[in-house]
Amino acid sequence: SIYQAGVISIISSGLIWIVPESPIWLIKNNDLTGASLSISKIKYLPINDESVDASVLNVCTQSRQNESNEKGNKKNGSIRHGEPKYLKRTLTGIALFGFQQFTGINYFFFYGTSIFSKADLNSPYLVPVILGSVNLIFSILSIFTISRFNRKTLLIFGSFNMMVLMIIFASIGITIKDKIEGTIILIISACGFIGSFAMTWGPISQVLISELYPNLIKVKAMSIACSMNWVFNFTISMFVPIISNYIGFGLGYIFVGFLMISIGFVYYIIPETRNKSIEQINMICLLYTSDAAD
After folding, report:
1. Are 189 and 168 in contact (CB under 8 A)?
2. Residue 170: phi, psi to the nearest 5?
3. Residue 196 CB-half CA count within 13 A
4. Could you write out the DSSP letters of every residue in 36-68?
5. Do the beta carbons of residue 249 and residue 169 sit within 8 Å?
6. What is the pTM of this model?
7. Which of 28, 37, 58, 182 has a CA positioned 20 to 30 A from the CA of residue 100?
8. Do 203 and 135 meet the contact criterion of CB atoms below 8 Å apart?
9. Per-residue pLDDT tens for 8-30?
Protein backbone atom coordinates (compact mmCIF):
# COMPACT_ATOMS: atom_id res chain seq x y z
CA SER A 1 0.00 0.00 0.00
CA ILE A 2 0.94 3.66 -0.20
CA TYR A 3 1.45 3.76 3.58
CA GLN A 4 3.92 0.87 3.48
CA ALA A 5 5.80 2.56 0.65
CA GLY A 6 5.92 5.76 2.69
CA VAL A 7 7.32 4.00 5.74
CA ILE A 8 9.99 2.24 3.66
CA SER A 9 10.93 5.54 2.02
CA ILE A 10 11.33 7.26 5.41
CA ILE A 11 13.46 4.38 6.76
CA SER A 12 15.62 4.41 3.62
CA SER A 13 16.07 8.18 3.88
CA GLY A 14 17.39 7.76 7.41
CA LEU A 15 19.63 4.78 6.70
CA ILE A 16 21.30 6.45 3.70
CA TRP A 17 23.19 8.71 6.11
CA ILE A 18 24.89 5.64 7.56
CA VAL A 19 26.38 4.67 4.19
CA PRO A 20 30.01 5.87 3.85
CA GLU A 21 30.73 8.50 1.19
CA SER A 22 32.72 7.42 -1.86
CA PRO A 23 36.47 7.61 -1.10
CA ILE A 24 37.17 8.44 -4.76
CA TRP A 25 34.81 11.43 -4.64
CA LEU A 26 36.33 12.65 -1.36
CA ILE A 27 39.87 12.43 -2.72
CA LYS A 28 38.86 14.28 -5.86
CA ASN A 29 37.64 17.03 -3.54
CA ASN A 30 40.93 16.98 -1.56
CA ASP A 31 39.35 15.54 1.59
CA LEU A 32 41.94 12.92 2.56
CA THR A 33 40.72 12.73 6.16
CA GLY A 34 37.18 12.03 4.99
CA ALA A 35 38.48 9.40 2.55
CA SER A 36 40.40 7.66 5.35
CA LEU A 37 37.31 7.70 7.56
CA SER A 38 35.15 6.32 4.75
CA ILE A 39 37.58 3.47 3.96
CA SER A 40 37.92 2.62 7.65
CA LYS A 41 34.12 2.27 7.90
CA ILE A 42 33.95 0.14 4.75
CA LYS A 43 36.71 -2.19 5.98
CA TYR A 44 35.66 -2.09 9.65
CA LEU A 45 39.16 -1.00 10.65
CA PRO A 46 40.53 1.79 12.85
CA ILE A 47 41.23 4.98 10.93
CA ASN A 48 44.94 4.78 11.84
CA ASP A 49 45.33 1.23 10.50
CA GLU A 50 48.10 0.73 7.92
CA SER A 51 45.68 -0.95 5.52
CA VAL A 52 43.52 2.19 5.49
CA ASP A 53 46.52 4.40 4.69
CA ALA A 54 47.57 2.04 1.91
CA SER A 55 44.07 2.08 0.42
CA VAL A 56 43.94 5.89 0.48
CA LEU A 57 47.33 6.05 -1.23
CA ASN A 58 46.18 3.55 -3.85
CA VAL A 59 43.00 5.50 -4.58
CA CYS A 60 45.00 8.75 -4.80
CA THR A 61 47.43 7.20 -7.28
CA GLN A 62 44.64 5.79 -9.45
CA SER A 63 42.71 9.04 -9.35
CA ARG A 64 45.72 11.09 -10.44
CA GLN A 65 46.53 8.58 -13.17
CA ASN A 66 42.97 8.75 -14.50
CA GLU A 67 43.04 12.55 -14.48
CA SER A 68 46.39 12.52 -16.27
CA ASN A 69 45.11 10.10 -18.91
CA GLU A 70 41.96 12.14 -19.42
CA LYS A 71 43.90 15.36 -19.86
CA GLY A 72 46.43 13.69 -22.14
CA ASN A 73 43.81 12.20 -24.42
CA LYS A 74 40.19 13.30 -24.28
CA LYS A 75 39.17 10.20 -26.18
CA ASN A 76 40.09 8.09 -23.14
CA GLY A 77 37.08 9.46 -21.30
CA SER A 78 34.74 9.11 -24.28
CA ILE A 79 32.38 6.17 -24.37
CA ARG A 80 32.09 6.37 -28.16
CA HIS A 81 35.80 6.61 -28.95
CA GLY A 82 37.57 5.36 -25.82
CA GLU A 83 39.66 2.20 -25.75
CA PRO A 84 39.67 -0.61 -25.06
CA LYS A 85 36.15 -1.12 -26.46
CA TYR A 86 34.36 1.42 -24.25
CA LEU A 87 31.35 1.63 -26.58
CA LYS A 88 31.03 -2.14 -26.89
CA ARG A 89 31.35 -2.55 -23.13
CA THR A 90 28.63 0.04 -22.53
CA LEU A 91 26.32 -1.69 -25.01
CA THR A 92 27.16 -4.99 -23.35
CA GLY A 93 26.06 -3.57 -19.99
CA ILE A 94 22.81 -2.33 -21.54
CA ALA A 95 22.15 -5.74 -23.10
CA LEU A 96 22.97 -7.47 -19.81
CA PHE A 97 20.29 -5.47 -18.02
CA GLY A 98 17.93 -6.08 -20.92
CA PHE A 99 18.28 -9.83 -20.60
CA GLN A 100 17.89 -9.51 -16.83
CA GLN A 101 14.47 -7.90 -17.28
CA PHE A 102 13.41 -10.20 -20.11
CA THR A 103 14.09 -13.34 -18.11
CA GLY A 104 10.47 -12.87 -17.06
CA ILE A 105 11.11 -12.17 -13.39
CA ASN A 106 8.73 -9.22 -13.24
CA TYR A 107 6.08 -11.32 -14.96
CA PHE A 108 5.75 -12.97 -11.53
CA PHE A 109 6.46 -9.99 -9.29
CA PHE A 110 4.18 -7.52 -11.06
CA TYR A 111 1.36 -9.84 -12.10
CA GLY A 112 1.66 -12.85 -9.78
CA THR A 113 -1.78 -12.26 -8.28
CA SER A 114 -3.56 -12.04 -11.64
CA ILE A 115 -1.58 -14.98 -13.06
CA PHE A 116 -2.57 -17.32 -10.26
CA SER A 117 -6.15 -16.09 -10.18
CA LYS A 118 -6.42 -17.58 -13.68
CA ALA A 119 -5.33 -20.89 -12.17
CA ASP A 120 -8.37 -20.87 -9.85
CA LEU A 121 -6.22 -20.54 -6.73
CA ASN A 122 -8.45 -19.91 -3.71
CA SER A 123 -6.16 -17.23 -2.24
CA PRO A 124 -4.10 -15.72 -5.08
CA TYR A 125 -3.10 -12.82 -2.80
CA LEU A 126 -0.92 -15.21 -0.81
CA VAL A 127 1.24 -15.77 -3.87
CA PRO A 128 3.20 -12.47 -3.66
CA VAL A 129 4.00 -13.26 -0.02
CA ILE A 130 5.30 -16.72 -0.96
CA LEU A 131 7.30 -15.45 -3.93
CA GLY A 132 8.72 -12.54 -1.93
CA SER A 133 9.84 -14.88 0.84
CA VAL A 134 11.57 -17.17 -1.66
CA ASN A 135 13.28 -14.15 -3.22
CA LEU A 136 14.55 -12.99 0.19
CA ILE A 137 15.91 -16.41 1.20
CA PHE A 138 17.75 -17.08 -2.05
CA SER A 139 19.05 -13.51 -2.24
CA ILE A 140 20.77 -14.11 1.09
CA LEU A 141 22.19 -17.42 -0.17
CA SER A 142 23.57 -15.65 -3.24
CA ILE A 143 26.08 -13.85 -1.00
CA PHE A 144 27.93 -17.13 -0.64
CA THR A 145 27.64 -18.37 -4.24
CA ILE A 146 28.79 -15.12 -5.87
CA SER A 147 32.15 -15.28 -4.11
CA ARG A 148 32.74 -18.95 -4.96
CA PHE A 149 31.75 -19.32 -8.61
CA ASN A 150 32.55 -17.47 -11.84
CA ARG A 151 30.08 -14.82 -12.97
CA LYS A 152 29.53 -16.43 -16.38
CA THR A 153 29.01 -19.89 -14.90
CA LEU A 154 26.27 -18.65 -12.58
CA LEU A 155 24.57 -16.59 -15.29
CA ILE A 156 24.47 -19.52 -17.72
CA PHE A 157 23.34 -21.88 -14.97
CA GLY A 158 20.61 -19.42 -13.99
CA SER A 159 19.40 -18.96 -17.58
CA PHE A 160 19.19 -22.71 -18.13
CA ASN A 161 17.35 -23.32 -14.84
CA MET A 162 14.88 -20.51 -15.46
CA MET A 163 14.31 -21.66 -19.03
CA VAL A 164 13.37 -25.18 -17.89
CA LEU A 165 11.16 -23.89 -15.08
CA MET A 166 9.41 -21.38 -17.35
CA ILE A 167 8.68 -24.13 -19.90
CA ILE A 168 7.13 -26.20 -17.10
CA PHE A 169 5.16 -23.19 -15.81
CA ALA A 170 3.80 -22.21 -19.22
CA SER A 171 3.01 -25.78 -20.27
CA ILE A 172 1.16 -26.60 -17.05
CA GLY A 173 -0.66 -23.27 -17.17
CA ILE A 174 -1.95 -24.01 -20.64
CA THR A 175 -2.89 -27.65 -20.03
CA ILE A 176 -3.92 -28.57 -16.47
CA LYS A 177 -4.06 -25.27 -14.61
CA ASP A 178 -7.61 -25.93 -13.32
CA LYS A 179 -6.63 -29.05 -11.38
CA ILE A 180 -5.12 -28.89 -7.92
CA GLU A 181 -2.06 -30.80 -9.11
CA GLY A 182 -1.51 -28.24 -11.83
CA THR A 183 -1.80 -25.34 -9.37
CA ILE A 184 0.78 -26.92 -7.05
CA ILE A 185 3.21 -27.40 -9.94
CA LEU A 186 2.67 -23.79 -11.01
CA ILE A 187 3.56 -22.50 -7.54
CA ILE A 188 6.61 -24.79 -7.21
CA SER A 189 7.96 -23.87 -10.66
CA ALA A 190 7.40 -20.15 -9.99
CA CYS A 191 9.25 -20.41 -6.67
CA GLY A 192 12.09 -22.31 -8.34
CA PHE A 193 12.27 -19.67 -11.06
CA ILE A 194 12.49 -16.82 -8.56
CA GLY A 195 15.05 -18.71 -6.46
CA SER A 196 17.24 -19.23 -9.54
CA PHE A 197 16.95 -15.56 -10.48
CA ALA A 198 17.74 -14.39 -6.94
CA MET A 199 20.96 -16.44 -6.89
CA THR A 200 22.13 -15.61 -10.43
CA TRP A 201 20.80 -12.91 -12.73
CA GLY A 202 19.41 -10.72 -9.94
CA PRO A 203 22.61 -9.90 -8.05
CA ILE A 204 25.27 -10.93 -10.56
CA SER A 205 24.21 -8.52 -13.29
CA GLN A 206 24.61 -5.68 -10.78
CA VAL A 207 28.01 -6.98 -9.61
CA LEU A 208 29.29 -7.60 -13.12
CA ILE A 209 28.25 -4.17 -14.34
CA SER A 210 30.31 -2.56 -11.58
CA GLU A 211 33.38 -4.63 -12.51
CA LEU A 212 33.16 -4.18 -16.27
CA TYR A 213 34.26 -0.54 -16.59
CA PRO A 214 37.41 1.37 -15.69
CA ASN A 215 37.04 4.30 -13.30
CA LEU A 216 37.42 6.73 -16.19
CA ILE A 217 33.98 5.88 -17.63
CA LYS A 218 32.42 3.88 -14.78
CA VAL A 219 29.98 6.60 -13.70
CA LYS A 220 28.83 7.43 -17.23
CA ALA A 221 28.61 3.84 -18.47
CA MET A 222 26.82 2.55 -15.38
CA SER A 223 24.40 5.50 -15.47
CA ILE A 224 23.48 4.73 -19.07
CA ALA A 225 23.10 0.98 -18.42
CA CYS A 226 21.04 1.50 -15.27
CA SER A 227 18.80 4.04 -17.01
CA MET A 228 18.12 1.54 -19.77
CA ASN A 229 17.35 -1.06 -17.11
CA TRP A 230 14.39 1.06 -16.05
CA VAL A 231 13.32 1.43 -19.68
CA PHE A 232 13.28 -2.36 -20.03
CA ASN A 233 11.41 -2.60 -16.73
CA PHE A 234 8.78 -0.17 -17.98
CA THR A 235 8.48 -2.11 -21.26
CA ILE A 236 7.74 -5.31 -19.37
CA SER A 237 5.15 -3.67 -17.14
CA MET A 238 3.53 -1.98 -20.14
CA PHE A 239 3.22 -4.87 -22.58
CA VAL A 240 2.93 -8.01 -20.42
CA PRO A 241 -0.78 -7.51 -19.56
CA ILE A 242 -1.60 -6.66 -23.18
CA ILE A 243 0.12 -9.75 -24.60
CA SER A 244 -1.11 -11.94 -21.75
CA ASN A 245 -4.72 -11.08 -22.61
CA TYR A 246 -4.19 -12.65 -26.04
CA ILE A 247 -2.01 -15.68 -25.32
CA GLY A 248 -2.33 -16.21 -21.55
CA PHE A 249 0.27 -18.58 -20.13
CA GLY A 250 1.80 -18.85 -23.61
CA LEU A 251 3.63 -15.61 -22.78
CA GLY A 252 6.07 -17.77 -20.84
CA TYR A 253 7.42 -19.20 -24.09
CA ILE A 254 8.46 -15.71 -25.18
CA PHE A 255 10.57 -15.41 -22.05
CA VAL A 256 11.99 -18.87 -22.78
CA GLY A 257 13.22 -17.51 -26.11
CA PHE A 258 15.01 -14.63 -24.41
CA LEU A 259 16.56 -17.01 -21.88
CA MET A 260 17.91 -19.20 -24.69
CA ILE A 261 19.48 -16.17 -26.36
CA SER A 262 20.92 -14.99 -23.03
CA ILE A 263 22.97 -18.20 -22.72
CA GLY A 264 24.74 -17.48 -26.00
CA PHE A 265 25.09 -13.81 -25.10
CA VAL A 266 26.81 -14.61 -21.81
CA TYR A 267 29.05 -17.30 -23.28
CA TYR A 268 30.28 -15.33 -26.30
CA ILE A 269 30.01 -11.66 -25.28
CA ILE A 270 30.34 -11.27 -21.50
CA PRO A 271 33.95 -11.31 -20.18
CA GLU A 272 34.66 -13.10 -16.91
CA THR A 273 35.37 -10.45 -14.27
CA ARG A 274 35.67 -12.46 -11.06
CA ASN A 275 39.03 -12.00 -9.30
CA LYS A 276 40.37 -9.92 -12.20
CA SER A 277 41.87 -6.45 -12.08
CA ILE A 278 40.60 -3.75 -14.39
CA GLU A 279 43.84 -4.07 -16.36
CA GLN A 280 43.12 -7.76 -16.98
CA ILE A 281 39.54 -6.98 -17.97
CA ASN A 282 40.79 -4.29 -20.37
CA MET A 283 43.08 -6.85 -21.98
CA ILE A 284 40.25 -9.39 -22.27
CA CYS A 285 38.04 -6.76 -23.93
CA LEU A 286 40.84 -5.78 -26.28
CA LEU A 287 41.77 -9.31 -27.34
CA TYR A 288 38.52 -11.06 -26.57
CA THR A 289 37.98 -14.72 -27.36
CA SER A 290 35.86 -17.21 -25.50
CA ASP A 291 39.00 -18.97 -24.24
CA ALA A 292 40.55 -15.70 -23.04
CA ALA A 293 37.44 -14.81 -21.07
CA ASP A 294 37.48 -18.11 -19.26
Report:
1. yes
2. -65, -40
3. 24
4. HHHHHHHHT--TT-HHHHHHHHHHHHHHHHHHH
5. yes
6. 0.77
7. 182
8. no
9. 778 878 888 888 888 888 888 88
